[in-house]
Amino acid sequence: MIESPMITFPLLILFLPLISFVILIFFGKKLPRQGDWVAVGSIVTTFILAVYLFVQMLTSYDANFSHGASLSWIDMGAFKIDLGILVDNLTIVMLLIVTLVSSCTHIFSLEYMKGDVRYNRYYAYLGLFTFSMNGIVLADNLISMYMSWELVGVSSYLLIGHWFEKDSAANASKKAFLTNRVGDIGFFIGIMLLYSAVGAFTFAPIFDSISGGEAIAGMTLTLAGLGIFMGAVGKSSQFPLHIWLPDAMEGPTPVSALMHAATMVAAGVYMCVRLFPIFTADALTVIAYIGAITAILAALTAITQNDIKKVLAYSTVSQLGFMVLAVGTGVYTAAFFHLLTHAMFKANLFYCSGSVIHSMHHALHEAHDHDTDPQDMRNMGGFREKMPITYYSMLISTLAIAGVPLFSGFLSKDAILAGTLAFAQQNPVHFLLPLLGFSAAAITAFYMFRLIFMTFHGKPNMKNIFKDIHESPKEMTGPIVLLGALSFFIFYTLPSNFNPIKDKGWFKDLIVPRNSAVPGSLTANEIAEYAHYAHYLAMGLSLFVAAAGILLAVLMYQRQSISSEKLSNKFGFLYHWSYNKFYFDENYNRYLYQPFLRLANSISWLDWEFYDKYFINGFGKLTKSFSKISGKFDYDGIDQGLVDGFGRVSSVSGNFLRNIQTGRLQNYLLFVVAGILVIIIAQAF
Amino acid sequence: MTNLQSLEFFIPELILTITILAALITDLFVKKSKTNMIGWVLGVGLVVVGLSVHNLSSAPPTTLFLDMIVIDPFSSFMKIVIILSTLLVIVASWVNDELEKYRKGEYFTIMGIMVMGLFLMTSSVDIIMLYISIEVVSIMSFVLAAYLKLDTRSNEAGLKYVIYGAFSSGVMLFGLSIVYGLAGSTNYFAIQDTLSSLDGSANPALIMALLMIFAGFGYKISSVPFHFWTPDVYEGSPSTITAYLSVAPKAAGFAMIIRFFHQVFSDSIGLTSNSIGSTDLPWPEIIGVLAVVTMTMGNLVAIQQKSIKRMLAYSSIAHAGYMMLALPVLSMEAVESIMIYLFIYVFMNLGAFFIVIFVKNKTGGESFEDFEGLGWKMPIVGAFMTLFMLSLTGLPPTAGFVGKLYIFKTLVGAGSEFLWLVIAGGVNSVISLYYYFHVVKVMFLGGKRSDVITYPPSTMFGLMIFTAVPSLILGLYWNPLASWVKDSLVFYNQVM
Q1: Interval A626-676: pLDDT, tens
Q2: What is residue A220's predicted lDDT score, i.e. its pLDDT?
C-alpha cells in the first residue's frame, strides 16, 4: 500500500518528531548537549521533506490531488475504526507551515533556552507537539484527528507550564488545558452525533452521506457541526473561550511563537477548513458571528495592554477571529490563506518580541535589577538603534498584519473582508459582520503601531539599562530575518502575478475550494463570484481603515500630538473595560467558577458524609467480611479446623509438616469428589 | 492418514524430540555452573520448532497417525502460544536465583518433554491420546514442582501435586471409560457419531461421564472445585515453574476443553439448544456457575494474601474463571475470545511473575513488605509492575482490557440469558482491582523513599520489555492479533 513518496514522506514527517520525543524524554540527559541536535536534526529533516512534497505538488500540479493510506485499527464486527492519513494540496501547504515554523522555533530556542534546567524536556515536548500537530494535519478521520487534538492540548499544557515553579505559569497551563477541555467536549459530542448518524469516522464517507441528505440533515447536522466547531472555539481561542490564550504567554516565547501564534491555535481554523463541507448555513452563520465578535473584542483589548506579549496574544486572538469569520462567510480558502500569512508574520512578531525580551533580561541582569518586568513596553523605547535587525523585521511583519499593500497580510485580510462584504451584500441582515470586521482591521493597525512606537521609537524609558541592550545572536536573528522576509507579498503571488494588490497568484489558486456537502448550500463558484464583485470595494475600505489606524498611532505615540492619557481619562469607562479585558475572567469567576465550586463542595459533602460513610464503607466492610469468611473457609475451615485439627491429633508425637500434607490432601480429594457429586445432583434439578 | 505419511506433518514434534535428546546429551558434558547452556539448546530448538509449526499452519487440516491427533490452524495457534511462554520461562530460569544450587540440565530437558505433552494435548482427537498427553504434562509438572530438592516446601508441593493429579486423572479416566463403553470407540468423531444417534436412555451415564471428564480438565485449568492444589503447588514450586504452570498447561487445557466439548458435543457449530450434545445436561448453567464461582473465589481469597506469589496464584484461578465465562456460549466467537484472552494473559501474567522473581532475587522474599517502596528504589521495575497490574485488572489502554472486552462482547452478543455472566465478570474485575492496586500502592506509597536507584540486569530487563510491550501494545492496536486468531479459527472436522 505504501509505495509512493506521497505516502512515505508524510509518514516520516509525522513520526520523526515522535522518535525525537521518545529519545529525548528517556535519554536526553545522557546525550551530549542534552540531545538538542536530535530534535533540531529531525525537525529540519521533516522541513526538507515537506519542501520536497511542496515542490512536487507545484511541479505536477493537480487541483484535485488526493492520496491516502489507512490501517484498520479496531475491527470488531460492526464497530470499525480505520486510522489513516490523507495527503492533498491543503495538507501539504499546512505541513510546510508547521515544519517551517517548528524548525525556526527549534533553532531560535538553541540560544533562547540555553542553560535552562529542563532543556532536554523542552525539546522533547516540542517534538511531541510537532508530532501531534502533524497528526491533526494528516488525519483522514475524526478519531485520529481527535486523538492528535488532545495530544496537542497536552503538549501545550506541558510547554506553557515549562517553568512550573512560577505560580502564574502553572496556573496558566491549567487554565489553558481546562478551557480547551470545554471545547473538546463539544468536539467529541459532534463526532459522536456524526458517527451515530453516518456510522463512519473517515471524512470521505461522512461527506458522501451528508450530500446524500438522508443519513443526517437539518437540525442534527447543524448541532453536529456546531459541536465540532466548539473544539475550534477552544483551540483557536474564540469568544467565549478566548481567555486562556493571553495567559498562555507565560510559556517560553519561542513556544508562544510556534504554538500560540502560528500552528496550534490555527488547528481549529484548519479543522474548520478541512471539515467545511459538513457545516450547514445556520452553523456557518453562528461561526461567522463568533469570529467577528472575537476579532473586535480582542482588538479592543489589545489597545490598552502594556505587556508586549499580551498585545501580541490579543492580536493573535483577533486575527484568529478573522479566520473564523472567513470560514463562517464561506470563503474558507481565504481563511486558510490568512492562516498561512498570519503564521509567518505572527511567528516573526513573537520571535522579535522574544529577541527584545531576551535582551531586556540580559540588560536587567547586568544592572542587578530583578523587579522590573522585562516584558512591559513602558520600560522600553528607542531600541531601534540598538537592535536594527529585530526592528526592521518586526516593522515588516507589523506592516503585514496591519494590512498595508505590498505585504502578505494585505492580500489575505483583503480576501477575508471581501468575502464578508459579499456575504453581507447577499444577506443584508448580517450587515454587522463586515462592520465589525473593518473596525477590527482599523484597530489592528492602530495597536500594532502603538507597539512599534513604544518599543523601538522615542526616548529610552530606562536609561540605566539602555547601554546593555544589544542585538541577539545569529541563532535568533536567523529565523527573524527568514520569517520577516516571508511577510512580503511576493512569495504568495509568484510566479503568475507581480501585481501587488491583486490577490490572484499561485497561492490563491493552489487550494481550490470545495463545494459544501450540505444539500442546498451555495456552491464554491457562487461564493467566489460574489466575493469577486465585492473585491474592489473591500480593498478600498481596508486600505482606508489601515491608513486611519496607522495615522492615529503616529499622532498619539510618535508625534504625541494627541495625548493618550487625556484620551483614556476622557473615555475612562471604555479604557477600563479594555484594560481589564472586558472583565471576562472576573465574571467567569463570579458567575461560573464560584457557583460551580459551591455546588461541588456541597456534592462532595454529601459524598463524604453519606455516600462514603455509609454506602462505600459499608460495602467495603461487607466485601471484607465476605472475603474473610471465604479465606476462613480455606484456612480455618480446611487448614486450621480439619488440617490442624487432624494435625494436632497426630502431631502429639510428631511431624507437623507431614501431617499437613496428608491431612490436607485427603480433604482436597474429598472436595473434588464432593464437588462432582454436588454438580451431578444439582444438574438434575 | 497412515503413520508413515503422517511423519511429514509431525516435523515440529520430531524436531522437538531431537532437541530434547540433544539437551539430555549436552547435559552430560557441561559443568554444573554452565548448565544454563542446556537452556540455550532447548531455546534454539524451540525457535526452530516454532518456525516449522508456523510453516505447517497453512497446511489443510488433517488427522495424523490413524486419527490419533490432528493438525489444524487452531492447534498451531496454541502451539505457538505454548512455545512463546516456554521461551520466556527458559530465559527467566537463567536468572532465577532459587535454581542456582541445582544442576539445571534436567530442569530444561523436562520442560522440553512437557512442551511435547502440551503439543499433544492441543491436538489429540482420541481419548487415549488425550489421557496420555495429560499424563505426560502432569508427570513432568510434578517433577518440576519438586525441583528444589533441598526445600521442603517444594517437596511438599511436588508430593501434593502427584497425589492430587493422580486422583484427578483417575476420575477423568473413569469418565472416559464410561464414554468408551457407550460409544464403543476412542475416537472423538466416532464418539460424536454414535452419541448423536443414542436415545435418551443412556443420558444419566453420559452426564456422569461428562462431569467426571470435566473434573480432569478442571484440574488442568484449576477451576473450582478442582483448584485446591493450585495455591499450595504454586507457592512451593520454583517461581519460574509457578509462572509456567499458570500459563502453558492452562492454555493447553483450554485447547483440550474447546476441542472436546466444542467438537464432540456441540456438532462443532456451537450450542443449538441449552444442553450439550444429545443429553439434557444444562451446560450453560453448570459451566456458568463454575466460572462465576471460580473467579469470585480466586479474587476474594487473593485479597487476603500476604505473599504476592500466592496472590498471583489465586489471581490465576480468577483468570481461568474469566476465560471460562465464554465456555457456556461455546460458539466460534467464544473460542475466538478465549484464544485472544489466552494470548494476552501469557504476557501479562508471566511479566508479573518475572517481577516477583526479580524482587525475590534482590530481597529474598516475595511478600508485600518486600515490595514496599519498590517504585522509588527501582522505578523501571515499579512502572512495569504497575502496567502488569493494570493489565491483569483489565483497564484500558492495556491488553487485559482487550481480552475482557472480547469475552464480554461474546456474552453480550449471545443473548440476554448470558447477561448475568457479564455482570458477574464486571463485579469481579472491580474486586480484583483492590488487590492488584494494593501492589501498586505498596510500591509507590509504602516504605521509605530512597535516592539510590537500582536498575534491573539486562536479561531481566529484556524479559520485562518482552512481556510489557505486548501487554501495552495489544491494548492499543490488537487488530493483527485479532485477525491472526480469526485465521486460526479452523478446526479439523470429519463432517466437513
Answers
A1: 878 877 777 666 666 555 554 454 344 333 333 333 446 777 787 788 888
A2: 86
What grid cell was written down for B436?
492488584
- Structural domain ending residue among the three candidates B210, B230, B265: B265
Asked if the model's pLDDT at residue A307 lies above 80, the reply is: yes
Element (H, E) at A310: helix A308-328
Q: What are the pLDDT digits (tens) for A611-631?
A: 777 777 777 788 788 878 877
Q: List the 622-661 stretch of A: residues with Cβ below 8 A of B.
A: 623-624, 626-628, 630-631, 634, 657, 660-661
**What nine digits make up the cell of A20?**
525525537
Give the count of alpha carbons within 13 A of A150, CB side only: 11
CA distances from B67 to A609, B185, B492 (A): 68, 12, 11
Smallest CA-to-CA distance from B226 within A162, A416, A673, A224 is with A673
Length of chain A in terms of residues written: 685
Low-confidence ranges of chain B (pLDDT < 70): 266-280, 494-496
Q: Are the C-beta atoms of A67 and A88 separated by less than 8 Å? A: yes
The helix or strand, by DSSP H or E, that contains position A264, with its residue range, turns out to be helix A264-274
CB neighbours of A231 closer than 8 A, spacing ≥ 6?
A149, A183, A184, A186, A187, A190, A268, A271
B258 and B283 housed in the same domain:
no
Find where cell 551530549 sits. A32
Per the CB < 8 Å rule, is A668 touching B303? Answer: no
How do residues A81-128 score in pLDDT, each as one tens digit? 888 888 888 888 889 889 988 998 888 888 888 877 888 888 889 999
Interface membership of B196 toward A (CB under 8 Å): no
Q: How many helices (H) and strands (E) does chain B have?
A: 20, 2
Per DSSP, the residues of A510-568 read: HSPPPPPSSTTPPPHHHHHHHHHHHHHHHHHHHHHHHHHHHHHHIIIIIS--S-HHHHH
Identity at A518, one-letter amino acid code: V
Q: Which residues of B touch A662 (CB under 8 A)?
A: none
Say whether pLDDT at A437 is over 80.
Answer: yes
Q: What is residue A662's predicted lDDT score, i.e. its pLDDT?
A: 42
pLDDT of residue A597 exceeding 60, the answer is yes
Same domain, residue pair B84 and B208: yes
Looking at residue A209, its pLDDT comes to: 85
Determine the Cα–Cα distance for residues A361 and A352; give it in Å rounded to an integer.
Answer: 14
| Residues A185, A294: Cα–Cα separation, whole Å | 21
Measured between CB atoms, does B347 come within 8 Å of chain A?
A: no
> What is the tally of structural domains in chain B?
2
Q: What is the pLDDT of residues A2-60, one digit of tens each?
A: 457 788 888 888 899 999 998 888 887 778 777 788 888 899 999 999 998 888 887 77
Q: Report helix, strand or coil for A47.
A: helix
B82 & B152 share domain: yes
Domain that holds residue B53: 1-265
Cβ–Cβ gap A672/B226 under 8 Å: yes
End position of a domain, from candidates B246, B265, B284: B265
Is the complex ipTM more than 0.90?
no
Report the percentage of chain A scoring pLDDT > 70: 92
Distance in angstroms (rounded) separating the CA atoms of residues B390 and A327: 45
Chain A / chain B CB contacts < 8 angstroms: 82
Distance from CA of B440 to the nearest CA of A (A): 19
* Cα gap B15→B81, rounded to integer Å: 18
Give the one of A73, A630, A657 whose C-beta lies nearest to B301's C-beta: A630
Q: Which residues pair with A83 in a beta bridge?
A: A71
pLDDT > 90? residue A259: no
The predicted-structure confidence for B185-195, as pLDDT tens digits, reads as follows 898 888 887 87
- Shared-domain flag, residues B260 and B299: no
Judgement on whether residues B256 and B290 belong to the same structural domain of the protein: no
Place of cell 484427578: B168
A403: nearest Cα among A546, A500, A298, A237: A546
